[in-house]
Amino acid sequence: MPERIYDTSYTQNRELSWLKFNDRVLEEANDKSVPLIERLKFLAIVTSNLDEFFMIRVGSLSDMAQLKSKKTENKKNLTAKEQLDLIYKEVAKSQTKKDKTFIDIETELLAHDIKRLEFKDATKEEKKYLDTYYNNFIAPIISPQIIDPHHPFPHLENKALYIACILKHRKTKDLTYGIISIPEKTRRIISIPGDNIAYILVEDIILHNITKIYKQYQVQDKAVISVTRNADIAFDHAEMVDEDFSDSMKKLLKKRKRLMPVRLEVKGKATSRLIDYLKEHLELTDEKVFIAEMPLDMSYVYKLKDIFKDKLPQTMYYKEFTPQISKRVDPNRPMIDQVLDHDVLLFYPYETMDDYLRLIKEAANDPDVISIKITIYRLAKKAKLIKYLCQASENGKDVTVLMELRARFDEENNINWADTLEESGVRVMYGFEAYKVHSKVTCITRLKNGELEVISQIGTGNYNENTAKMYTDISLITSDKDIGRDTVSFFNNMAIADLNGHYDELLASPFDLKHKVLNYIDLEIMKAQMGQKGYVLMKMNSLTDREVIDKLAVASTAGVKIDLIIRGITCLLPMIEGKTANITIRSIVGRFLEHARIYVFGSDDPVIYISSADMMTRNTEKRVEIAAPIKEIRLKKDILAYLELQMKDNVKARLIDQDGNLYKIESTDEKIDSQDIMMQRAIEEAPKKVEETPKDNKGFFDLIRDFLSKHR
Predict the structure, then answer these.
(1) CA atoms within 13 A on the CB side of 607
(2) CATH of the domain at 446
(3) Suppose 539 and one of 128, 598, 603, 685 were both cysteines; which one would form an S-S bond, judging by CB atoms 3.0 to 4.6 Å apart?
(4) 159 dihedral zone (left: phi>0; alpha: psi -120 to 50; beta)
């Protein structure tokens, strides 16, 4: 079959689109209306985003390029090698912008007497304190090494920090090289005593003391370095069939640590001799080396608040916000009773996940509950959900957890939780060989007065109690009989590895969801062709699926108005005459990570779904995903009001142009920050919880004594 020729006039490359999105996040680090430490956090997010991008996307493309594959992607017809060349070129530009942003933020922090020291800038007293700290707490635990015929070049772990140096022996004058690993067990931030906020990073202390470490050498060059490795581990399905799936995952996680390097980062001005030496041993070319002025690991910024909690003013951070009780929930009634009466929709993080957890806790202790079934992709390190599921199992409920062990970078956490669940008697199933289970579904069955009741929960985000306070997601909890019948069927199908089950209400990938989404778009095309108003609104994280992109382009040319709210990657280019002229795309980046997926078809009494699936090929064809319809009128209105607010955002929203660039919305109207307004609404609309009357803890004889004293 001849290879299909794609129209590339209205599409852009996925990787370059992602890099533009990451630059958009960098804008938040430069936004002076954002509190200073929060700006530093956005810079940390940009850095960690880029780390993962190199580990996964660049890693995967590097594998393909090594095979000298001539296969091209279907957006711009670029080979893996061509994509890598463009990526490294764009990342070099981004590094310059990141460094400038970091210097600007630190300059502003200095004006508030908040400083990160380089050792050379410390006062005499500060240096004395740091020398003492080094001698007592750092020197005893570092492990320096030289590289010679007896000491080969060491394995540098992915994203770990090291100090590399050139050494000249004081007696023999021979040159050699040294490597020092920055100990993981030591504190990263060393605060300096005093009234002001001053600190130094541990790598800078070690860097300064390197002459003490290599006493018999002259240090001719030194630098902090970090290597990024390909972390896109491949799953050998045949091997997984032959042994326990969990054991296979543990082996793969060890393998990930030794995959090939794809990037070398160097902090400061190292000589070309040192860099060339590292490039040779890591087998990296010039474009894969990035010189940075900022710290190579920015994760330390998240610990500043804890370390300097008594000194850092609140103005350095966003005003604290606590997720509220939903206006759709009565905090004084059991959740099970409420859900049996009406559907509940939770908007995270504006509304609390506690109401969902309260439902699971009630189900664990409800004598009428027969079973609880749930799919899990990501969890917090400490998860109440696991506690309640174990409790349910110990109370005699039939508890089934479909645990996806291949949630990238959460594999180890999921393996540990799977072990905990199994110890409590929970039945744990794992995902399928070729398909990750990414859906977010809970199914609770009850037998009440001889009748079976099913409570279903379908969400757009994970059951992670921490990210539920930071990611915007939607969770539907319903006792709708038709949806309940589908969720029961879904778990039965998962148990027998039937990925092609039929559902009346739910949309499920890998074999059904995309097909039905395309059908809904076709219905809007038919409306437009008949002179009626055709409309599609979709909110998601990314859009890369070529079939969906092409269908949206066809709809646009037919006259269907299409609004897309896409946080990250969009391979579709809007507003191109004759192709995508009726499509607008906007991205919102703010305090919270936009994570909800919502599909709306039609303008009068629209069909609305919430889903775990982005319109990416991996989601629509390679994962088990679920979309659930919103059926109650009042919940539809809530979702449409939410989307309308996002469409009006002119503060944190950016429009995407024909070239895929993001630009600010110039408006003389009132400033609308959709996330800020959602926080305000949640506070204003939250119901009040009635505090329970304290119970009288007096004993029986105390009560008798009180009674007699009153009736003498």
Answers:
(1) 16
(2) 3.30.870.10
(3) 598
(4) left
Q: State pLDDT tens for residues 304-350.
A: 999 998 899 999 999 999 999 999 999 999 999 999 999 999 999 99
- Cβ neighbours of residue 483 under 8 Å, at least 6 residues apart? 456, 458, 505, 506, 628, 629
In a domain, 244, yes or no: yes
Q: What residue type is assigned to position 452 of the chain? A: L
Amino acid at 689: K
What's the number of domains the chain is made of? 3
Three-class DSSP category at 551: helix
Q: Is the pLDDT of residue 703 over 90?
A: no
Question: What's the whole-number mean pLDDT along residues 166-181?
Answer: 95
Whether 352 and 496 map to the same domain: the answer is yes
**Same domain for 108 and 145?**
yes
Residues 295 and 374 in one domain: no
Domain range holding 133? 14-316
- The DSSP code sequence of 277-318 is HHHHHHT--GGGEEEESS-S--GGGGGHHHHTTTTS-GGGSP
Answer yes or no: is 699 within a domain. no
Tokens of 169: 């022996």
Q: Which two tokens stand for residue 561?
A: 């108005």
Contacts for 691 with CB less than 8 Å, ≥ 6 apart: none
Q: Based on the fold, state whether residues 300 and 364 are members of the same structural domain.
A: no
Tokens of 490: 């879904």
Q: For the residues 676-695, what does the mean pLDDT come to?
A: 83
Q: Count Cβ atoms below 10 Å from residue 66 Cβ, excluding itself.
A: 11
523 and 482, same structural domain? no
644 φ/ψ sector (left φ>0, alpha ψ -120 to 50, else beta)? alpha
Last residue of a domain, one of 454, 472, 504: 504
> Which residues are catalytic, by number?
438
